[in-house]
Write a structure and sequence with these properties.
CATH architecture: 2-Layer Sandwich
Mean pLDDT: 90
CATH superfamily: NADH:ubiquinone oxidoreductase Nqo5 subunit
Strand content: 15-25%
Shape: globular
Structural class: alpha/beta
Low-confidence stretches: none
Order of helices and strands: HHEEHEEEEHE
Oligomer: single chain
Number of helices: 4
């Protein structure tokens, strides 16, 4: 069992999640060619769905959700280092249903690319740049790839949120003016 599978916390079908499971079951049927059902679930936290999307189909899924479910509010995009793979997670809200839905995309470490959705959801522009910069996950077709978090002189191909990143030059050492003081300095 992978670390990602261990973290799944599916809600029980029989109690209190009827609306979530109704939407979930509909989406699995409607998007059957684009999602991976075994890695998709209704979360135990109420009003949360997670759909594992086949990476090459993220644009189709987002376009479908925009057209059929009026999904327009992007909360954020987060990244994860899963070891052999990296993961991009788009977090949206379905306002009319008051349900949060996350689309998870896995990409290989060796070829960490997936199609950008910025032209479909303009709010994704900044967060897609963040994930490229911090994890090295490249949203192909992004209209304005640029630095947004790290300094301009940050070394190429160093991604500080990957688990295997080391800080050989001490770039991320704690400043004396930021963060809590270590116990020995109190």
């Amino acid at each position: 069992m992978s670390d990602a599978e261990k973290e799944m916390r599916p809600a029980p079908r029989e109690s209190g999640y009827q609306e979530e499971y109704a939407l979930f079951d509909s989406l699995l049927q409607e998007l059957s060619d684009y999602v991976i059902p075994s890695e998709s679930y209704v979360h135990v936290q109420p009003r949360r769905l997670f759909l594992q999307v086949k990476t090459e189909n993220i644009r189709d899924v987002v376009q479908y959700m925009l057209d059929e479910y009026d999904m327009w509010q992007l909360s954020t995009l987060s990244g994860r280092d899963l070891g052999d793979e990296l993961q991009a997670c788009y977090h949206f809200f379905l306002n009319d249903r008051k349900i949060a839905i996350t689309f998870k995309l896995n990409v290989s470490r060796e070829h960490p690319e997936y199609p950008s959705i910025t032209d479909l959801v303009p709010a994704a522009e900044f967060v897609e740049n963040e994930i490229r910069e911090l994890y090295g996950i490249v949203p192909v077709g992004h209209p304005n790839p640029r630095r947004c978090e790290l300094p301009e002189n940050w070394p190429e191909n160093e991604f500080p949120l990957r688990k295997d990143w080391e800080d050989p030059r001490g770039l991320m050492e704690r400043s004396k003016t930021t963060g809590p003081k270590p116990k020995e300095e109190l």
